[in-house]
Design a protein that fits this description.
The protein is of the alpha+beta class. The chain is 40% helix and 13% strand. The protein has one domain (33-200): NADH Oxidase. The protein contains nine helices and six strands, in the order ααβαααβββαβαβαα. The strands form two sheets. It has a four-stranded antiparallel β-sheet. The chain has a two-stranded antiparallel sheet with strand order 3-4. α2 (44-54) crosses α6 (145-163).
């Protein structure tokens, strides 16, 4: 059994907790996915801090089955763009995507061209590790890999937004080209590609509305639900 250490959180007044939670909600509610990036350099320290924050995520059996590959090199970004656009062209114009899927994407105004993969000062490719390799070269199975990596990516996005940086969850399919271009080992699979930088001065985003709390939450409380009882009586 692993060593245990004491753990506690400061007990704050409820009013303080609500204020802190509201401030964070307001911040995150202002987040948008950006496709128009400035080429202005972003210090490596900021990207490193976001990755360190992402790596605090909970993971199955604490196996931390992720790796973040941060790319600043112009030639490598160019290779990634060319490969990604090849897959995206097949998706948008080559018949991979159903008409229903394309209709769902239409309000976002996206197409197969991805210039931001070169413009953004950083590309951060996240890989999941279905298994590890021990000192003897044997496989070590990882558990809840996608769930763990997904949570880490969420924290990565939140950290970037808190610092004032923009990003986009780019997931061309398939993404095997990332493994080849970035020379990743066989026990890693591409998960998400994040362009990261400042929004361009002329950047725009779709005027999207998020679902209200009534559409994303269900409450199971201990008290009587008078409205539910009334519906049952009808």
């Amino acid at each position: 059994m692993s060593n245990r250490i004491p753990y506690s959180l400061p007990r704050r007044p409820v009013a303080d907790m609500l204020q802190r939670g509201t401030q964070f909600f307001t911040l995150m509610n202002s987040r948008r996915s950006v496709r128009d990036f400035s080429a202005e350099p972003v210090p490596r320290e900021l990207i490193e801090l976001a990755i360190r924050t992402a790596a605090t995520a909970p993971s199955g059996a604490h196996q931390q089955p992720w790796i973040f590959v941060a790319v600043e090199d112009l030639q490598t970004k160019r290779e990634i763009r060319v490969a990604a656009e090849r897959e995206e062209h097949a998706f948008y114009q080559g018949g991979r995507a159903s008409s229903e899927w394309l209709d769902a994407l239409a309000p976002l105004g996206t197409d197969w061209q991805k210039p931001y993969l070169e413009t953004a000062p950083w590309l951060v490719a996240v890989f999941e590790r279905p298994y590890g390799i021990d000192a003897d070269g044997q496989r070590l199975k990882h558990y809840y890999v996608k769930e763990s990596v997904g949570i880490a990516c969420g924290l990565f996005i939140a950290s970037l937004h808190k610092m004032g940086l923009a990003t986009l969850t780019h997931t061309p399919h398939p993404m095997d080209f990332l493994s080849r271009i970035l020379d990743r080992p066989k026990n890693e699979r591409p998960f998400i590609l994040f362009p990261v930088g400042y929004p361009a001065k002329a950047a725009t985003v779709p005027d999207l509305k998020r679902k209200p709390i009534e559409e994303v939450a269900v409450w199971v409380s201990g008290g009587k639900d008078e409205e539910a009882e009334a519906r049952l009586m009808q």
